[in-house]
């Protein structure tokens, strides 16, 4: 009888938990992961599971001491990274991927710092805004880039800046789409100098110009990604670009009155179009 490696079984089960979390929380992200090479699926699920669990602490558990929960999550994260084990399956899966792909500890520090910023109402001046976006979005892209580059440090350094710009574009689109709910539900306005009650078309156009510059800078990096990762990242890019264009076509008053989304049938068309471009070597 073949002996069962229970340590591997525990790690594999933990990775499967992160996959389940991704599927339950984000159909779009799950679709994007499925277009990556099979070997990249579980590592990226592990990153998403870690990020999602921290985000849930600061955005969901309002009847609990969120600062204490996040501090405990931080402590457990670093204990897992040091020991190579956690009984929290999300953290066990994450630490395994961090170790395997050499994900920088600084990225994890920056991410958890941004989560801490969400625990309090903040007046986001430009420096703090950039700091928050780096920690909440750009480093997540950099964690994934470490996985995609498979130990190729030169490629990672070449694609570091485009990866940051792509993460920033995604986050800023989220901020613009969710400006009403962020303000009404959480008392937040992320854009520096923007007063929610005076949000207008001119302010919206300034924000959109900044987002468009991030998208443009990110695209060149997508074309240089390994083939194993290129289609999945490109699909995320075109999905968010489509969402951005829908937002850009609407006046500020509409953004404050409704949550813009991309319909599922449009997502399917974007997937098919991206796949054919990939097969024809146009990306």
From TrEMBL:
Record's PROSITE patterns?
Answer: SQUALEN_PHYTOEN_SYN_2
Name the Gene3D superfamilies on file.
Farnesyl Diphosphate Synthase
Q: Which CDD domains match?
A: Trans_IPPS_HH
Key words, A-Z: Transferase
Q: Does the keyword Transferase apply?
A: yes
Pfam families for this protein: SQS_PSY
Give the coiled coil ranges.
Answer: none
Cite the SUPFAM superfamilies for this sequence: Terpenoid synthases
- Indicate what this protein is called per its UniProt record: Phytoene/squalene synthase family protein
Annotated source species: Hymenobacter saemangeumensis
Native organism taxonomy: Bacteria, Pseudomonadati, Bacteroidota, Cytophagia, Cytophagales
């Amino acid at each position: 009888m073949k002996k069962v490696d229970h340590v591997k079984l525990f790690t594999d089960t933990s990775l499967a938990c992160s996959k389940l979390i991704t599927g339950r929380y984000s159909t779009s992200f799950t679709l994007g992961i499925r277009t990556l090479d099979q070997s990249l699926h579980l590592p990226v699920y592990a990153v998403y599971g870690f990020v999602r669990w921290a985000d849930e602490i600061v955005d969901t558990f309002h009847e609990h001491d969120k600062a204490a929960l996040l501090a405990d999550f931080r402590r457990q994260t670093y204990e897992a990274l040091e020991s190579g084990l956690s009984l929290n399956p999300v953290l066990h899966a994450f630490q395994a991927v961090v170790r395997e792909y050499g994900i920088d500890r600084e990225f994890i520090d920056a991410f958890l710092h941004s989560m801490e910023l969400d625990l309090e109402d903040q007046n986001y001046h430009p420096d703090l805004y950039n700091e928050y976006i780096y920690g909440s979005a750009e480093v997540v892209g950099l964690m994934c880039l470490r996985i995609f580059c498979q130990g190729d440090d030169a490629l990672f350094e070449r694609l570091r800046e485009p990866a940051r710009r792509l993460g920033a574009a995604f986050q800023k689109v989220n901020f613009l789409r969710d400006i009403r709910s962020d303000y009404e539900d959480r008392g937040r306005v992320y854009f520096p100098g923007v007063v929610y009650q005076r949000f207008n078309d001119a302010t919206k156009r300034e924000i959109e110009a900044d987002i468009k510059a991030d998208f443009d800078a990110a695209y060149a990096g997508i074309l240089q990604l390994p083939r194993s990762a290129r289609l999945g990242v490109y699909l995320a890019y075109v999905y968010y670009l489509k969402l951005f264009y829908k937002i850009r076509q609407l006046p500020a008053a509409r953004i404050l009155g409704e949550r813009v989304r991309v319909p599922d049938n449009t997502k399917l068309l974007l997937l098919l179009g991206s796949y054919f471009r990939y097969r024809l070597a146009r990306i």
